[in-house]
Amino acid sequence: MSLFSYKKNKKKSDAWVKIAMFLVAAFMLLPFCWIISTSLRLPKESFSLPPSFFPTSFHIENYKRVFTELPFFNFIFNSIKITIVVTVGQSIVTSLAAYAFSRIKFKGRNVLFIIMLSGIMIPYQSTIIPKFLFVKALGIMDTHLALILPALIHPLGIFLVRQFMLTIPKSYDEAAYIDGATRFRIYWNILLPMSIPSIIVVSIMSFIMMWNDFMNPLIFISTYEKMTLPLGLTVLKGYMGTGSVSAILAGVSISLITPLLIYIFGQKYLMQGSALSGIKG
After folding, report:
1. Architecture of the CATH domain 70-277
2. Rounded to two decimals, what is the model's pTM?
3. In angstroms, rounded to a whole number, what is the distance separating the alpha carbons of residues 243 and 64?
């Protein structure tokens, strides 16, 4: 095969790959397009048969209902507060645990690490009853602490940051020990700054996960004023689900803005996620 034929075939294969990726991306975007489209319909058009993908009229009143029928800004404030506190707290706890598992040799370290990793393998729903009993025993039911404290431990985040720290040469630690640095100073001044890319990835994952969390607020929060955005939007369903689907999806569309911006600005770091977990260790 000549070089010209090879380049021509490669261009064709690349073109087919791009077309396939475009079709997959378009297919994945269809639900989001349908959400935005339905949020602009009249409520009666939400159940029309056959269903239409595009709205016949732009009913902006659906978005007005979100702000007039709900304490929407209060829900947003609650979600932002809880999400930021959990993201910062998870970053601190995750980096400290990752440093211990990657740098400190202690008895039972590998066993403890395997037990910690089992948290990734256990279905989340199976832990909700022990978590409920734990929160009730602490006396923090119907408070934001009930959402914050259990979320501070993130096994997947610990695993990712630990794997990244294992790629950092231990010669940095040895040089710092010679200069008289303590373990915490080595963590704070050397390993933590060098592990920032992995911590950013974990923080973005944590932020999106907490922002979209519905199950925990549903179980632990009962006061209307303390609800987060995903739980508060269910009020639009109305009694026996008689509310407007268009108004509900208008609220969902607004709630998507924050994680979308986080993803856009953090996309560069998320693309590095496959390299952060590594194989070492």
Report:
1. Orthogonal Bundle (1.10)
2. 0.82
3. 15
- Residue 178 has which token pair? 């010679």
CA-wise closest residue to 116 among 154, 148, 142, 144: 154
Section 8-23 average pLDDT: 79
Query: 144 pLDDT band (50/70/90 cuts)?
Result: very high
* Residue written as token pair 């609800």: 227
Domain limits, the chain: 3-39, 70-277
Range with the poorest average pLDDT among 114-123, 157-166, 271-280: 271-280
Instruction: Indicate if the alpha-carbon torsion angle 41, 46, 48, 54 is positive or negative.
Output: positive
Residues 226/78, Cβ–Cβ less than 8 Å: yes
- Range of weakest confidence among 172-176, 209-213, 246-250: 246-250
Residue 159 CB-density burial (10 A; 0-12 exposed, 13-18 middle, 19+ buried): buried
Please answer whether residues 98 and 158 qualify as being in contact, where contact means their C-beta atoms are separated by less than 8 angstroms: yes
254: closest CA among 60, 86, 84, 81? 60
Whether 203 and 91 have beta carbons less than 8 Å apart is answered as yes
